[in-house]
């Protein structure tokens, strides 16, 4: 059984208009998303900004009011607040935020920030708690003198590590990492990603890794879901997505990864333009009449794509994949 | 646009209803009854009982409230026992005085505040700006009634430049003389109110001017060689004019609240003084009517401002 | 799990204590420290602060030595006694009562009510604004409608009417009546800041850490707007002095046997008093002006201290 099962998750925001201010329409931020996260794995959720990936992540932590659908954890639907309370859900599921400065309360010392989940869930003695916080600082590679400092005294990379320390404080089963490194310098990104991996190995944590950066995702994730306009367009293993992309949106994202090989610059540019041309010409094939993605169909046991059955099979055979 | 205004009106309706219920209940809670003083104190209790009964004073409160509202819609606010005349006529005579003074104060306020605000913003950080800021700050933090008392003492009594009581001198004849005398009587309270009420407009205008001074469209105009006088007149000032106009509505609220003090200090026969006198004489019908009228005027003031602001800034249109 | 942590810990209890001290020495200056250094850098502000604190202490203690009922007795011998004499060094009013003594007791009463009013109305306004801003949606909508309604009420009139309805009132009931009507400004200010603050990720992080709503509101958000709260309280204190004195001036504040700065200024309502016997009311009027200016000035300095870009004092 999977660690967490997300089923047909929908988050709609009402649009009110007209004289009586009734709900006339809604923004479908997340519109029917289903996927499972296994224990100990890093699951990548990729999409452009506004695709609903952060909203999905927040729903999984319980920060977003879900319109419909379910998120099953330990046999209970945690979209309901009482179930979250019953399970002490956030003891097991934590979050790392994108903006490290805004996610740390500027008026609190690092000790109090990291100890916050401990105080709510573990009720340790004063000394135990302090020791635990020091251990956590040690894990993320910060010195003990950080304890009494305030967030603004640290660099962006250090702050993000503090965010990680807070997230792992209760030794959770799953951490939602919402673009954890996209606000950081490239050199610092690698640092933070590496010790996130280290922590994963040591504690057996699962990550839901949300990012728009396919390069980073390739480094981190075993399974990947591509999100577009509130729906999933493609799900697969790292190999499925990077080597056998089926949906045009996935192909576009892959084409947009910057290439450092100067010699093949022209070739790269040509392939990028080709993908863009296909996208412009064949939009109607990949999206339904309302511009939304189709339901997912399975092409191999690990690989699914949001296309009508016939087109999916046709594309899959072109890519040389074995039909399921 | 019209939808916004209409919707704003609809929100007003429950507010007015709640206000009227509140006012009615407060009137009920006041000690004494409406006949106090109007009938012979030695009257037979049975007779009072009878009077109370035919006037419906033993009915449940909601029925009495309903009767009161029906009367209200017929323009019948009852009789003032202190003046022995219908409240409608009594207030009608005073309302003109109050509104006339409020309007005059408002015009003067704008006349002082607009140039000060623009000037302070234009010379940001320099001496005139500092002086204007200190001035607005000083005027803002001194309680207004203290200013009035000191003002009437210096200019009314010691220097004798202005009349200290009433709204018109008793010997005024002919319309020109009448008008002149009225104007003379509101000059000092109006000036004091205006000189000490500029702070909001000046501060708003100043920061608006400073903001737009650094905005791209003003820089563009400047780099095209538009003279700076024209920039201030055509670009900056015109842009901030509507929001400034919107302050008019809010300042009505402030002026009405202040009118109680102004009219008491200057013995100026407006609604504020009438209210203070009616409280002393426990003239409940007048008190109720005045609270209701002031509440509705406040409401209209904020409504006006909200509407002007919603025209200017679509972001704050009410949902 | 515990073993996992043990691997990463090589810190002893002694080290811990030493680090605690070191880090505390290096920690950022507290709000109080910043404000204090700001006052040290600004001499006029320091003077204003000393005037206020010294004056309040003086009247609070001085009033203890004055027998108010005895002071308020009519004394024919002192009828409009001139000021600057041995018996009445600020003169006496129409009932021969010492203006200086009335001033001390009156200041105590007026300032006391202003402080009480500030405490009650600001506490209420802060809670209202925080709750309204934090729980968006229907709660906020409902609270905003109540706010709109309160804004529409003619405040001064409502207070006067309430004062006439309540048969027996003293300074405490009076303070509560004022408080009903003077929380709106604070609440609007706090609400708009809370709305902005609730959007920040640290609030989401606290929610995800299982912290309760009330704890988030009062322990996470409130400290972040504390400087705004301090500034607002100071400025409302200055305004609130005008509230009670104004109504007492009209005759609807403190009862006439309880001296207040407002009732003293009301002496000016008599055309004779205002020019001939100026000492009966002018000291009270000047006192209010100086007090309000000093308090607001302190408020301005606090505002500057809250805005790090405008600070004049340096903090180490």
From TrEMBL, chain A:
<keyword id="KW-0547">Nucleotide-binding</keyword>
<dbReference type="GO" id="GO:0005524">
    <property type="term" value="F:ATP binding"/>
</dbReference>
<feature type="domain" description="ABC transporter">
    <location>
        <begin position="4"/>
        <end position="254"/>
    </location>
</feature>
<dbReference type="Pfam" id="PF00005">
    <property type="entry name" value="ABC_tran"/>
</dbReference>
<keyword id="KW-0571">Peptide transport</keyword>
<protein>
    <submittedName>
        <fullName>ATP-binding cassette domain-containing protein</fullName>
    </submittedName>
</protein>
<keyword id="KW-0067">ATP-binding</keyword>
<dbReference type="Pfam" id="PF08352">
    <property type="entry name" value="oligo_HPY"/>
</dbReference>
<dbReference type="InterPro" id="IPR027417">
    <property type="entry name" value="P-loop_NTPase"/>
</dbReference>
<comment type="similarity">
    <text>Belongs to the ABC transporter superfamily.</text>
</comment>
<keyword id="KW-0653">Protein transport</keyword>
<dbReference type="InterPro" id="IPR003439">
    <property type="entry name" value="ABC_transporter-like_ATP-bd"/>
</dbReference>
<keyword id="KW-0813">Transport</keyword>
<dbReference type="InterPro" id="IPR017871">
    <property type="entry name" value="ABC_transporter-like_CS"/>
</dbReference>
<dbReference type="InterPro" id="IPR003593">
    <property type="entry name" value="AAA+_ATPase"/>
</dbReference>
UniProtKB/TrEMBL annotation, chain B:
<dbReference type="Pfam" id="PF19300">
    <property type="entry name" value="BPD_transp_1_N"/>
</dbReference>
<feature type="transmembrane region" description="Helical">
    <location>
        <begin position="9"/>
        <end position="27"/>
    </location>
</feature>
<dbReference type="InterPro" id="IPR045621">
    <property type="entry name" value="BPD_transp_1_N"/>
</dbReference>
<feature type="transmembrane region" description="Helical">
    <location>
        <begin position="182"/>
        <end position="205"/>
    </location>
</feature>
<dbReference type="InterPro" id="IPR035906">
    <property type="entry name" value="MetI-like_sf"/>
</dbReference>
<dbReference type="InterPro" id="IPR000515">
    <property type="entry name" value="MetI-like"/>
</dbReference>
<dbReference type="Pfam" id="PF00528">
    <property type="entry name" value="BPD_transp_1"/>
</dbReference>
<comment type="similarity">
    <text>Belongs to the binding-protein-dependent transport system permease family.</text>
</comment>
<keyword id="KW-1003">Cell membrane</keyword>
<keyword id="KW-0812">Transmembrane</keyword>
<feature type="transmembrane region" description="Helical">
    <location>
        <begin position="286"/>
        <end position="312"/>
    </location>
</feature>
<feature type="transmembrane region" description="Helical">
    <location>
        <begin position="99"/>
        <end position="122"/>
    </location>
</feature>
<feature type="transmembrane region" description="Helical">
    <location>
        <begin position="241"/>
        <end position="266"/>
    </location>
</feature>
<keyword id="KW-1133">Transmembrane helix</keyword>
<keyword id="KW-0813">Transport</keyword>
UniProtKB/TrEMBL annotation, chain C:
<comment type="similarity">
    <text>Belongs to the binding-protein-dependent transport system permease family.</text>
</comment>
<dbReference type="GO" id="GO:0055085">
    <property type="term" value="P:transmembrane transport"/>
</dbReference>
<feature type="domain" description="ABC transmembrane type-1">
    <location>
        <begin position="107"/>
        <end position="299"/>
    </location>
</feature>
<dbReference type="Pfam" id="PF00528">
    <property type="entry name" value="BPD_transp_1"/>
</dbReference>
<feature type="transmembrane region" description="Helical">
    <location>
        <begin position="45"/>
        <end position="66"/>
    </location>
</feature>
<keyword id="KW-0813">Transport</keyword>
<keyword id="KW-0472">Membrane</keyword>
<keyword id="KW-1003">Cell membrane</keyword>
<keyword id="KW-1133">Transmembrane helix</keyword>
<dbReference type="Pfam" id="PF12911">
    <property type="entry name" value="OppC_N"/>
</dbReference>
<dbReference type="InterPro" id="IPR000515">
    <property type="entry name" value="MetI-like"/>
</dbReference>
<dbReference type="GO" id="GO:0005886">
    <property type="term" value="C:plasma membrane"/>
</dbReference>
<dbReference type="InterPro" id="IPR050366">
    <property type="entry name" value="BP-dependent_transpt_permease"/>
</dbReference>
<protein>
    <submittedName>
        <fullName>ABC-type dipeptide oligopeptide nickel transport system, permease component</fullName>
    </submittedName>
</protein>
<dbReference type="InterPro" id="IPR035906">
    <property type="entry name" value="MetI-like_sf"/>
</dbReference>
């Amino acid at each position: 059984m999977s660690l967490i099962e997300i089923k047909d998750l929908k988050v709609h925001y009402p649009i009110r208009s007209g004289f009586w201010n009734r709900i006339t329409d809604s923004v479908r931020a997340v519109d029917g998303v289903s996927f499972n996260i296994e224990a100990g794995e890093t699951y990548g959720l990729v999409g452009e900004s506004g695709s609903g990936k952060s909203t999905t992540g927040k729903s999984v932590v319980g920060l977003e009011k879900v319109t419909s659908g379910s998120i099953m954890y330990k046999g209970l639907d945690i979209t309901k607040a009482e179930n979250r309370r019953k399970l002490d859900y956030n003891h097991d599921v934590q979050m790392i935020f994108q903006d490290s400065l805004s996610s740390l309360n500027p008026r609190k010392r690092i000790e109090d920030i990291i100890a916050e989940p401990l105080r709510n869930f573990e009720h340790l003695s004063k000394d135990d708690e302090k020791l635990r916080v020091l251990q956590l600082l040690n894990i993320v590679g910060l010195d003990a003198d950080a304890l009494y400092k305030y967030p603004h005294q640290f660099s962006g990379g250090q702050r993000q590590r503090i965010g990680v320390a807070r997230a792992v404080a209760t030794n959770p089963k799953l951490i939602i990492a919402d673009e954890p490194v996209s606000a950081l310098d490239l050199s610092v990104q690698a640092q933070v990603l590496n010790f996130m991996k280290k922590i994963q190995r040591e504690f057996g944590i699962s990550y839901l890794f949300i990012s728009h950066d396919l390069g980073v995702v390739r480094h981190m994730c075993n399974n990947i879901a591509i999100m577009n306009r509130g729906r999933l367009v493609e799900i697969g293993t790292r190999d499925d997505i990077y080597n056998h992309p089926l949906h045009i949106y996935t192909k576009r994202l892959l084409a947009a990864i910057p290439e450092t090989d100067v010699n093949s610059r022209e070739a790269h540019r040509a392939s990028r333009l080709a993908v863009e041309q296909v996208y412009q010409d064949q939009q109607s094939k990949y999206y339904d009449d309302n511009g939304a993605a189709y339901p997912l169909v399975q092409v191999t046991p690990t690989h699914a794509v949001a296309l009508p059955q016939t087109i999916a099979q046709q594309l899959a055979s072109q890519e040389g994949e074995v039909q399921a | 646009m019209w939808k916004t205004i209409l919707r704003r009106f609809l929100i007003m309706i429950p507010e007015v209803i709640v206000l009227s219920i509140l006012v009615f209940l407060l009137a009920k809670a006041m000690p004494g009854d409406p006949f106090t003083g109007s009938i012979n104190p030695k009257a037979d209790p049975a007779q009072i009982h009878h009077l109370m009964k035919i006037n419906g004073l033993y009915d449940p409160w909601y029925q009495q409230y309903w009767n009161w509202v029906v009367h209200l819609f017929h323009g019948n606010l009852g009789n003032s026992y202190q003046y022995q005349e219908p409240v409608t006529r009594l207030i009608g005579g005073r309302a003109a005085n109050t509104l006339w003074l409020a309007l005059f104060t408002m015009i003067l306020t704008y006349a002082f505040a607009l140039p000060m605000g623009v000037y302070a913003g234009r010379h940001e950080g320099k001496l005139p700006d500092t002086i204007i800021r200190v001035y607005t700050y000083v005027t803002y933090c001194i309680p207004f009634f203290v200013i009035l008392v000191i003002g009437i003492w210096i200019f009314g009594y010691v220097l004798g430049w202005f009349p200290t009581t009433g709204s018109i001198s008793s010997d005024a004849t002919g319309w020109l003389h009448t008008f002149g005398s009225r104007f003379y009587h509101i000059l000092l309270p109006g000036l004091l109110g205006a000189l000490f009420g500029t702070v909001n407009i000046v501060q708003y205008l100043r920061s608006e001017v400073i903001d737009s001074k650094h905005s791209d469209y003003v820089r563009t105009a400047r780099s095209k060689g538009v003279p700076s006088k024209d920039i201030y007149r055509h670009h900056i000032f015109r842009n901030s004019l509507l929001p400034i106009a919107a302050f008019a509505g809010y300042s009505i609220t402030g002026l009405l609240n202040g009118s109680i003090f102004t009219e008491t200090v200057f013995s100026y026969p407006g609604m504020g003084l009438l209210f203070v006198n009616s409280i002393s004489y426990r003239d409940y019908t007048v008190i109720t009517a005045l609270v209701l009228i002031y509440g509705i005027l406040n409401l209209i003031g904020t409504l006006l401002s909200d509407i002007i602001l919603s025209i200017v800034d679509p972001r704050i249109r009410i949902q | 799990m515990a073993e996992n942590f043990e691997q990463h810990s090589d810190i002893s209890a002694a080290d811990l204590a030493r680090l605690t001290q070191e880090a505390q020495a290096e920690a950022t200056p507290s709000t109080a420290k910043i404000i204090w250094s700001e006052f040290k850098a600004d001499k006029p502000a320091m003077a204003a602060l000393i005037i206020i604190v010294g004056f309040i202490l003086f009247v609070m203690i001085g009033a203890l030595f004055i027998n108010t009922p005895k002071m308020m007795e009519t004394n024919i011998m002192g009828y409009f006694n001139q000021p600057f004499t041995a018996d009445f060094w600020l003169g006496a009013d129409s009932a021969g009562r010492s203006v200086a003594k009335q001033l001390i007791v009156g200041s105590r009463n007026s300032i006391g009510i202003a402080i009480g009013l500030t405490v009650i109305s600001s506490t209420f306004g802060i809670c209202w604004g925080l709750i309204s801003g934090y729980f968006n949606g229907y709660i906020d909508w409902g609270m905003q409608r109540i706010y709109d309604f309160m804004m529409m009420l003619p405040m001064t009139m409502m207070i006067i009417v309430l004062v006439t309805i309540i048969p027996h009132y003293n300074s405490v009931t009076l303070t509560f009546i004022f408080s009903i009507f003077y929380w709106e400004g604070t609440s609007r200010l706090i609400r708009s800041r809370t709305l902005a603050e609730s959007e920040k990720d640290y609030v989401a992080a606290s929610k995800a850490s299982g912290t309760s709503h009330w704890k988030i509101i009062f322990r996470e958000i409130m400290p972040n707007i504390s400087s705004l709260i301090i500034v607002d309280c100071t400025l409302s204190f200055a305004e609130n002095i005008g509230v009670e004195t104004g109504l007492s001036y009209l005759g609807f504040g403190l009862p006439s046997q309880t001296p207040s700065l407002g009732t003293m200024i009301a002496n000016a309502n008599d055309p004779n008093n205002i020019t001939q016997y100026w000492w009966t009311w002018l000291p009270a009027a000047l006192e209010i002006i100086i007090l309000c200016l000093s308090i607001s000035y302190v408020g301005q300095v606090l505002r500057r201290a809250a805005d790090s870009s405008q600070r004049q004092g340096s903090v180490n």
